C-alpha cells in the first residue's frame, strides 16, 4: 500500500479482535488518522482506535511544523487543534489520500478553508457544544476583572491585607449597570442570559443582523458607537472575520467610558493590542480581561502582564472537563463519518 510500514507502528496494537466497520475501498486495510497531540481527550481517541489506525504526536505540546509534515504523508484524516496551522504546505505534505481535517475547536481561522475545499478535503469542527463553557468563563473573567480577584489574592498572600478598608480593592458592580455585548451569536446570547441575573439595568448588543432571541432576553440592538459610549462593561464575543478585525482599536477605546471594563473572550485579532495597552496605561478605560491574545501564548515580557488592571487567562474558554470530552468525541465522529462517506455531525461547509 502507499503508506510505509513505519507509518503504521501503532496499528498492530489495535488491529486484533476488532471489527472493521469502515475500511478503505478495495482493500481490508484500515484508515490512518494522524492526531496532533498526545493529550487529546481519551474518549475521542478511543472511538477512532476502534476503527482506524492511529499515529499520534507524542507530546502534549503542539507538533512542530517539520515533524508534522514528516508524519502525515498518506494519512486519511488529521485530528488537530487550533494551534495547528492547516495550510497549503500541510495539505501538500499529507497528499491526495487526505479526506478530512477535524479540529477540536469552534474557531477555524487556523485552517485554509478554500484550499481544503479545492482539494475536496472535508472540515469538521465543534460548534454549539462550547457555548455554555465559554459563557461561564466569560462571567468568571468579567467578575475577576471588575472585582479585581487576582490583585486581591496577590495582596492577601503577600501581606498587603492589613485591615478591612472602605475603598480598598473596590471595583464596579454589575447591578444597575449597562452591559454591551459585541457579537450576539450563541455565546453572546448565553452571556447575556447569565448577566441578566445580576440585576443589570440594560443589556445592549451590536451585531450586523437583528437577532430574534434578543427580545426574549431583553437586549437592545444599537450601533457599535452607541454601545461603546453607553456601556459600563463591554464584552467582545465576535468571531474573527474581516469585518471584526481590530474593531477594538484606538478610536473604539476612546469612545468608551473611562470607567469601562472591557472583556474579550473571542479570538486574538479582534483587538488592536497596542491600542488596548495604551488605553489601560492612560486609564482611557478602567480595566480589561482577556482570554485570548496575540500572539498565544503571550510572551512573558508583554506589557499587558505588567498592568494591574489587566487580567489575562491562557485561552481556557471551553476548558470544562465535560466540554473538552464532548469536543473530542464530535471530532472523532466527524472523522469516522467523513471516511465512511456519511453525514458528519458538524461539517464546516
Ligand atoms: C435591581 O435593581 C433595581 C434598580 O437598579 C433595584 O431597585 C432593585 O432593588 C434591584 N433588585 C435586586 C434584587 O437587587
Ligand atoms: C452577527 O451575526 C452574524 C450572523 O448571525 C454573524 O455572522 C456576525 O459575525 C455577527 N457579529 C457581528 C459583529 O456582526
Ligand atoms: C478604528 O476602526 C474603525 C472601523 O471600525 C475605523 O473607522 C477607524 O478609522 C479606526 N481607527 C483607528 C485609529 O485605527
Ligand atoms: C482580545 O484581546 C487580545 C489582546 O488585546 C487581542 O489580541 C485579541 O485579538 C482580542 N480578541 C480577543 C478575542 O481577545
Ligand atoms: C458507515 O456507513 C454505513 C452506511 O453506509 C452506516 O450503516 C454505518 O453506521 C457507518 N459507520 C460509521 C462509523 O459512520
TrEMBL record:
It holds the Pfam family 2-Hacid_dh_C. It comes from the Eukaryota. PANTHER family: 2-HYDROXYACID DEHYDROGENASE-RELATED, GLYOXYLATE REDUCTASE_HYDROXYPYRUVATE REDUCTASE. Residues 139-317 form the D-isomer specific 2-hydroxyacid dehydrogenase NAD-binding domain. This is Glyoxylate reductase/hydroxypyruvate reductase. Belongs to the D-isomer specific 2-hydroxyacid dehydrogenase family. PROSITE patterns: D_2_HYDROXYACID_DH_1. Residues 39-346 form the D-isomer specific 2-hydroxyacid dehydrogenase catalytic domain. InterPro entries: D-isomer_2-hydroxyacid_DH, D-isomer_2_OHA_DH_cat_dom, D-isomer_DH_CS1, D-isomer_DH_NAD-bd, NAD(P)-bd_dom_sf. GO terms for molecular function: glyoxylate reductase (NADPH) activity; hydroxypyruvate reductase (NADH) activity; NAD binding. One of its GO terms (cellular component) is cytosol. Keywords: Oxidoreductase. It comes from Euphydryas editha (Edith's checkerspot).
Amino acid at each position: 500500500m502507499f503508506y510505509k510500514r513505519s507509518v503504521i507502528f501503532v496499528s498492530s496494537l489495535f488491529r486484533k479482535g476488532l471489527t472493521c466497520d469502515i475500511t478503505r475501498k478495495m482493500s481490508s486495510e484500515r484508515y490512518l488518522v494522524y492526531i496532533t497531540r498526545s493529550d487529546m481527550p481519551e474518549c475521542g481517541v478511543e472511538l477512532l482506535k476502534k476503527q482506524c489506525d492511529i499515529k499520534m504526536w507524542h507530546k502534549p505540546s503542539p507538533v512542530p511544523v517539520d515533524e508534522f509534515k514528516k508524519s502525515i504523508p498518506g494519512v486519511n484524516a488529521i485530528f488537530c487543534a487550533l494551534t495547528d496551522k492547516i495550510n497549503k504546505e500541510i495539505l501538500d505534505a499529507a497528499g491526495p489520500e487526505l479526506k478530512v481535517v477535524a479540529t477540536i475547536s469552534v474557531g477555524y481561522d487556523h485552517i485554509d478553508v478554500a484550499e481544503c475545499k479545492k482539494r475536496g478535503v472535508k472540515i469538521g469542527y465543534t460548534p454549539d457544544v462550547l457555548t455554555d463553557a465559554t459563557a461561564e468563563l466569560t462571567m468568571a473573567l468579567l467578575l475577576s476583572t471588575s472585582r479585581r480577584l487576582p490583585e486581591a489574592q496577590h495582596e492577601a498572600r503577600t501581606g498587603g491585607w492589613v485591615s478591612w478598608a472602605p475603598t480598598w480593592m473596590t471595583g464596579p458592580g454589575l447591578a444597575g449597570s449597562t452591559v454591551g455585548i459585541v457579537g450576539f451569536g450563541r455565546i453572546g446570547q448565553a452571556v447575556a442570559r447569565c448577566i441578566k441575573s445580576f440585576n443589570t439595568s440594560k443589556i445592549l448588543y451590536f451585531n450586523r443582523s437583528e437577532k430574534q432571541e434578543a427580545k426574549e432576553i431583553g437586549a437592545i440592538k444599537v450601533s457599535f458607537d452607541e454601545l461603546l459610549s453607553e456601556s459600563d462593561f463591554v464584552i467582545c464575543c465576535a468571531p474573527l472575520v474581516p469585518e471584526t478585525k481590530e474593531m477594538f482599536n484606538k478610536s473604539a477605546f476612546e469612545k468608551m467610558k473611562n470607567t469601562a471594563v472591557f472583556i474579550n473572550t473571542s479570538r486574538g485579532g479582534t483587538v488592536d493590542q497596542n491600542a488596548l495597552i495604551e488605553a489601560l496605561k492612560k486609564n482611557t478605560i478602567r480595566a480589561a480581561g482577556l482570554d485570548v491574545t496575540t500572539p498565544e501564548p503571550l510572551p512573558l515580557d508583554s506589557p499587558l502582564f505588567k498592568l494591574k488592571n489587566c487580567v489575562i487567562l491562557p485561552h481556557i474558554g471551553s476548558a470544562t472537563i465535560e466540554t473538552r470530552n464532548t469536543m473530542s468525541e464530535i471530532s472523532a465522529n466527524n472523522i469516522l463519518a467523513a471516511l465512511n462517506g456519511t453525514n458528519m455531525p458538524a461539517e464546516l461547509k
